[in-house]
Write a structure and sequence with these properties.
Blueprint: H1 6-15, E1 23-27, E2 32-35, H2 49-55, E3 62-65, H3 71-78, E4 83-87, H4 90-99, E5 104-106, E6 119-124, H5 135-148, E7 149-159, H6 168-179, E8 186-193, E9 196-197, E10 201-204, H7 208-217, E11 221-228, E12 232-238
Parallel strand pairs: 3-4, 3-6, 4-5, 6-7
Antiparallel strand pairs: 1-2, 1-8, 7-12, 8-9, 8-10, 11-12
Length: about 240
Amino acid sequence: MEEYNPFGRKMLDMFEGRRDDLLEMERDDGYIDELGLGEYFADYDDFPVCEKDALERVKGRVLDIGLGPGRVSLHLQSKGFEVFGIDLTSEAVQVARRRGVLHAARMSACELGFAKSMFDTAILFGNNFGLCGSPERVVDMLAALRDIVTDDGVVLAESIDHTDTDKPAHLAYTRMNVERGRLPGQIVIRNRYKGAVGDWFELLLVTPEEMRALAAQAGWRIERLLSAQGRCLSRSCARPR
């Protein structure tokens, strides 16, 4: 049986009009923050500027990794692109389909099951560049994308820069990670919703330099860096010539 997923349950509740209960994120150092999911349902006009810029580079058949309720897939479908969206959260896939995403399936970003050179563009918006958690698993994911993205294809990836903060709790956490021999932005979190608690999982937040290094290990190069008001860092990755 699939484990309880507070993030997915909150997403489904929002889609069905139940918006009163809070979704919380708990980090393994005890830090707790409220998560608002409104941006996951945003229309294109409300996308971050860096995402709009990145989407200008979309071509061919598209893989939307971590599609959530389908905001990116729906926009690209409306532009005539053939889009395949995947998400590990079953509620996200359900909501995306109900909202009109034509091709949505439950699949892990860390175990991509597609044919060689099936896609021309892969998209990892939000913090989805670091979905697989550890640097090693992120590199493995990027290496898998080399097989399923065409030789002249692109990956559009996004991450919050973990250095873009002045909060003492976040700065202390990154220092603790360094002391433990981990990347500073390698966080361990779980979600809470309606009195239930999800499983712990890892998420990797990276700086531009860290993203460049991880991409290079998997045979990609950063072709262009886009930013928007410190809110997100979005990069286009292309194969080496």
